[in-house]
């Protein structure tokens, strides 16, 4: 199975591709959209458009653009937008987020759980800077080390120690790059566990429901491998922080 299909199946019951509860998503969006009745939002690595669709449903005068490489996820986003009646206020682009440009800047740029598309946090900040309007806001989610990673944690994530830093150092890097956190959320252990059990459970459940499908065995294997990597590797080691940032 290709990684995009695995991700779609795994996120069937947790459409936000990050360890965030519905309440946390709502609070982050409320702060990101606060004080601005109308505006333009951009999600770099939007997947099925969950962040943008929530924003449009809550703010009738906002418009949005989503960019992603997963054509099937974008199709789902269009279908959901139509069901919500917001399809005329969203544009979806099937392309690499690193290559995306726009004639006008955006009031809000989002990249939550997708900084790997830019090879890390600082390149993501640089890309967002070019697309953000003066006074605009950036909502970005990134991993960090809650403790020194073990070899099992690194192997489970396919990561190197330098891929992340601790929360203080990560925040210092954001500040040094000219951004100011005006809000933020550190995902809780409960949010992480819910996310991982939902991810692996949705994928394994699909395999059980479709035993004769050619991809069933691969889906079950991916779910079992991911669960083991998490429980025996990076659980309580990898954290996740979502910043709401403004430029100085």
Helix coverage percent: 40-55%
Which class do the helix and strand fractions yield? alpha/beta
Rounded to the nearest angstrom, the radius of gyration is 18 Å
Shape designation:
globular
The CATH homologous superfamily corresponds to Vaccinia Virus protein VP39
* Average pLDDT for all residues: 97
Strand order of the largest sheet: 3-2-1-4-5-7-6
Q: Give the class-level CATH name.
A: Alpha Beta
Tell me what the CATH architecture is.
3-Layer(aba) Sandwich
Note the main sheet. Answer: 7 strands, mixed
Low-confidence stretches: none
How many strands in all? Answer: 7
* Total domain modules: 1
* Portion in beta strands: 15-25%
Number of helices: 9
In N-to-C order, the SSE pattern is HHEHEHEEHEHHEHHE
Question: CA-to-CA gap between the ends?
Answer: 44 Å
| CATH fold-level label | Rossmann fold
